[in-house]
Automatic annotation (TrEMBL):
GO MF, one example: heme binding
Family annotation (Gene3D superfamilies): Cytochrome P450 (1.10.630.10)
Protein's name in the database: Cytochrome P450
Pfam family, one: p450
Cofactor(s), names only, from the UniProt record: heme
InterPro entries according to UniProt: Cyt_P450 (IPR001128), Cyt_P450_E_grp-I (IPR002401), Cyt_P450_sf (IPR036396), Cytochrome_P450_Monoox (IPR050196)
Family as reported in the entry's similarity comment: Belongs to the cytochrome P450 family.
Chain sites annotated for binding heme: 417
PANTHER family: BIFUNCTIONAL ALBAFLAVENONE MONOOXYGENASE_TERPENE SYNTHASE, CYTOCHROME P450 FAMILY 4
Source organism (scientific name): Ensifer adhaerens
Amino acid sequence: MAGWFHQPVKFREELSEEKFQPARADYYAGPPGKPLRLLLQARTDFLSIWRNDDFTEKVSQIRLIGRQVILVNSPDLIRQVVVKRHENFERKSPQMRRALEFLLGDGLFISDGDTWKQRRPLVADIVHAKRVPAFGPVMERTTSELVERWNGMPDGAQVNVLHEMAGLTAEIIARSVFGNQLGDDSAAAVTEGFTSYQSLVDSINLGYFLGFDDGLPVLRTPTLRRSVKRIHRIIDKVVEDHLEGRGDHNSMVELLIRRQQRNPELKLDLVALRNEAATIFMAGHETTAATLTWAWYLLSRAKWVEKALHDEISRVCGDRVPTIDDVPQLELCKAIIEETLRLYPPVPILARQARQAEMIGDIAAERGSLVLIVPWLLHRTESLFEDPHHFRPDRFMGGRRPTPYSFIPFASGPRVCPGLHFGLTEAILCLAIIAQQFRVAVVDGHKVEPICRLTLRPKGGLPVTLHRRQRPSHDR
């Protein structure tokens, strides 16, 4: 009986000469017309419930315990949902709202309505693309510190690169958002706290399917409370320091505080500031850490791409450490990150809840129905991407761009991630600085398995060995 509830997931990975299909769950082959079984399978692994014909441009629907679920996998209809009819579909799914409300409160990522309208421009301005160059030195310095630490290890040292990238991006976002260093202990506490939090939150909110339009609250177990407390304690201390005048005047949180002082109607009290700081922090460090981790996996297998990357870094940067000014010339490096985001979007399922009944294509969406836009499917649809399961960074080079609304790793429309430019620049720069000095190789025999909880990570992290390439002859 236990096997019926927890169906094993088969993973597929294929590597031949200069062709690489990275790890993915095999197509679902369970019997049709068994929605309860599908729902239980989704609780085990949301990426393993898709059949071969789901990876096509279409809109379709199923019923799960009486609840309508609509899958939208067509760029034109995705545009309808996220742009043209945004206000009807702006609300995140009950699953996502309930899963994150304990951690983020009414933070921008899961808020909607007036709260979202009021805070979105404020947060978007703070992480706007025009501010990103100012944070370049923070990214460069923090990544160089990680490289220096790795240089203190013996060649071939083994590390969990997911943990390493999470610590790196946590420190970068801390220095950028908060204007001060987290330190190894606090960075590790936040990273481990969120890892624990993800593992404890159910992938499905059964209350929603049982008829509760807002789902049911997540059970706040002692373990879950401890995970949240670890994260909140660190973020609260930083916000309180800012409120008491001990913050960096160039940090993102300081900008939020000054805006609140000028505009009291924003009602950004300590709790609201904490929620927005936590949202920026968690979204900013988790997604980039996952992206970099997947990039190291892909490069470890696709040696020909790794060599081309090393050649590009040498050509653009010589023996000096890459800087943010080099990013526009690092075309392959950017393409590798974009292709990584295509194959392993950090948030592989974008779910919305219909406020009112409305037609989506030829399907009548009911009020309260769940509308799924799944980048995991969309990015692997053959009519939109040739060789969709293959790792091919060249598809993003030479001025080539995907069909609009077919590549949405940061979502799209008014709810597009406001930190898109920050995260993309950070990932490119971190990859270049590290790859200049190290080859990162997945440990022999390790089986990589993508798993989707709140974000998409390799199950158990990614054990790798570190191999020095060369040291820059001088630092700049």
